[in-house]
Amino acid sequence: MHVRSHKLEQGQIVLRGTATTPKPWSRYYDNDTGIYYAALNYQLLATASELDVSLRVIGRNAIGITTDYNNTGRIPDVPSTDISQGSVKPDHQVMYSYNNQARTAFIQNWTSIIGAGETKEMYWTISNDGQGRFINAQGDNPASGYVVKRAVYYKTRGLQDTTDSGWTVPFAVLPNWTLERVIEQCRRHISKSTDHGSYTFMITYAEDPEFLGLLDSYSGAVAAYSTRRLSNSYTGDLLRVRRSNDNAELDIRYNNQNILDSTALLTFVGSNNGYVVKWYDQTGNGNVLTQTATSSQPLIVLAGSLISVNGKPAMRFDGSNDSLPAATNFNPNPNNHLTVAAVMRHDVVNVGQQYFSAWNSTSSLQIVQLATLSSGAGRAAARYDNAALPRCDTSSSLSANTQYVVTAHFANNEAVAYFNGVEVLDGSGASINGADPNSHVNTFRLGGRSYDGALPFDGYMQEAVIWSNTSHQNEADEISVTINDFYNAY
Question: Is 389 found in the same domain as 275?
């Protein structure tokens, strides 16, 4: 049934296949007359697939009804009978073009909305009766040592500009995304929206220094865990977190500053507590730390507040049973040159604790440990293939409530550790000339002794890395300084 006027078409539409209820930007095309329509209003009839609609005329495709498609520059419409629902048509097929308005908005001063150092690249507005774009493409070839960093700003109304408030960032844009990729992500964002019919996007371009993490400077890592991103090649998640109110879990990645995305984390956890279920390995070796026992998961959000040490995200181990063991045993030292690093803070220091452990009750299976003795002294120790056990113990007690960067290196005739940059040598007299640290598959754990969880850690952990590199480039003192450049522990 149709009731036709010069500007209005009323009747029913039956949806088929993957068709959805009309969106304000949907276009309807009458193959017989070449007329385009937009939905003015609609209501559901007897079933979810039947609609009573009023369609408003928005234009006519004279080319489509007077010539064939050859050399016209337009895309053929999907064959249909009478009026058909389709996707957004290219701009030249829509009656109203807002390209002039887009240009006017683009040339305004956007410094109050976009980030410092960003260059405007594209303004795109979508209204109920048309759309407009203005593009000043910046390319995809940054200067040497830099990466492309685009950003998107967004409002849920058409034809918005700098005089309008409420601009937001709808999604994160990863480094080196092309403009085409960003536009496609904008389309995906629109397609998922259910409560808006018009949109405006401003896309910007910037070049940032290429990110180089700890693992880019010091290669050969076997396992690496941190609350920050450690490698340019790593694009995965940092942690999996469980919230206390319903035990739901969510993977949390890094933000634009390459540290834990606390915004996403706190949004997920809300006013509840957040516990670490998994600490992901950033080396690509898959040595993930996993704690399935909810009562033994370290805390990272307390009552809706992020736990931090010295302004950086940290996880809290309770000194009772919290720990993160490796889900699968692995060999920390396949190349006989072992270097380890950890960033931690003790709540108490007069209790024996192992916070970094690849150990065993059988001495021939022991590899490495970072520990605090009951005296409060710090220890870095490794077992060698001649049964020697060099122990680098600090001469005085560590301090509670003090952040430490601890690094150590063990190799043939080498045993040295650094506690906040202070060198500590082996004091046991172990004979390691001609011997190497043990090399075999073993258990590994942060927060307690690896093979049984004893000697639980009472404090905070932010980073732990294991290297096995024969090049001797991974000097523990240099690594300590590099890590401290980020954490400012000493």
Answer: yes
The C-alpha atoms of residue 53 and residue 42 are separated, in whole angstroms, by 4
| Higher pLDDT, residue 357 or 25 | 357
- Structural domains of the chain, count: 3
Q: Are residues 373 and 470 in the same domain?
A: yes
Model pLDDT, residue 34: 66
Predicted confidence at residue 123, as pLDDT, reads: 97
397 falls within a domain? yes
Length in residues, the chain: 490
Domain boundary among 48, 64, 87: 87
Which of 159, 194, 209 delimits the end of a domain? 209
455 inside domain: yes
| Tokens matching residue 264 | 């996403």
Let me know if 209 is exposed, middle or buried by CB neighbors in 10 A (0-12, 13-18, 19+). Answer: exposed
Output the six-digit token pair for 367. 């590899």
- pLDDT digit string, tens, across residues 62-91: 544 444 434 333 434 433 334 344 433 444
| CA 192/CA 174 separation, integer angstroms | 20
Q: Quick check: is 12 in a domain?
A: yes
Q: Are 250 and 295 within 8 A, CB to CB?
A: no
* Distance separating alpha carbons of residues 305 and 273, to the nearest angstrom: 8
What does each C-alpha distance from 111 to 9, 19, 31, 114, 162 come to in angstroms? 45, 41, 46, 5, 9
User: Which amino acid appears at position 238 of this protein?
Assistant: L
481 with 407: CB under 8 angstroms?
no
Question: Is residue 93 situated within a structural domain?
Answer: no
d(CA 111, CA 162): 9
Q: What is the pLDDT of residue 76?
A: 40
Sign of CA dihedral 44, 50, 56, 58: positive
CATH (domain of 254) = 2.60.120.200
**Beta-carbon contacts of residue 115 (< 8 Å; ≥ 6 apart):** 151, 204, 206
Same domain, yes or no, for 337 and 422?
yes
Does pLDDT of 113 surpass 90? yes
- Residue 435 is part of which domain span? 214-487
Same-domain status, 365 and 227: yes
Q: Residue 320: which region, alpha, beta or left (left: phi > 0; alpha: psi -120 to 50)?
A: alpha
CA dihedral 366, 369, 432, 465 (to 10 degrees): 110
* pTM as predicted: 0.65
CB atoms < 10 A from the CB of 372, how many?
Answer: 28
Which of the 8 DSSP states describes residue 317?
Answer: E
CB contact at 8 A, 235 and 284: no
